[in-house]
Amino acid sequence: MISLDGHGPAVLHLFARRVTGHLHLHGAGELDIGTARHLVEVVETLPVVDLEQLCLDLTDLSFMDAAGLRALLTADTVVAGRDGGLRLTGLRPPGPPHARHHRTGRRPHRRASP
């Protein structure tokens, strides 16, 4: 397990395992401005053989912001630059506004009625 502490309370845990010769990284926690660069650093340090088919499972990701999305795009560029492939699994759309409020502590924006 790799624990990536971000700025403030943000933490991203990565669990690595091999499945049929491919490396699977299972992420849990937050992929945000505080942890995003750490994910990219981990991918950049992987041996080329692990990048042939890298699977990043985000099922247990509790939060992702724009910096996290950018980290996924950068990781894909790194892997492709080494003639590998990145597969993302476990991505899901955010829940309804009340669920996002519960996770983030922020109130949803309300539209003004005419």
In short:
With 114 residues, the chain is an alpha/beta fold. The chain is built from four helices and five strands, in the order E-E-E-H-H-E-H-E-H.
Question: How would you describe this structure to a colleague?
Answer:
The chain is α/β, with parallel strands linked by helices and 114 residues long. The protein has one domain: Transcription Regulator spoIIAA (2-Layer Sandwich), CATH 3.30.750.24. 33% of the residues lie in helices and 35% in strands. Strand 1 and strand 2 form a beta hairpin.
Question: Widest sheet: strand order?
Answer: 1-2-3-4-5
What is the count of helical runs?
4
Rounded to the nearest angstrom, the distance between the terminal CA atoms is 52 Å
* CATH architecture field: 2-Layer Sandwich
Outline the fold blueprint.
Layout: E1 2-5, E2 11-19, E3 22-31, H1 36-45, H2 48-51, E4 53-64, H3 66-81, E5 85-89, H4 97-104
Parallel strand pairs: 3-4, 4-5
Antiparallel strand pairs: 1-2, 2-3
Name a few traits of the molecule.
alpha/beta, Transcription Regulator spoIIAA, 5-stranded mixed β-sheet, 4 helices, 5 strands, globular
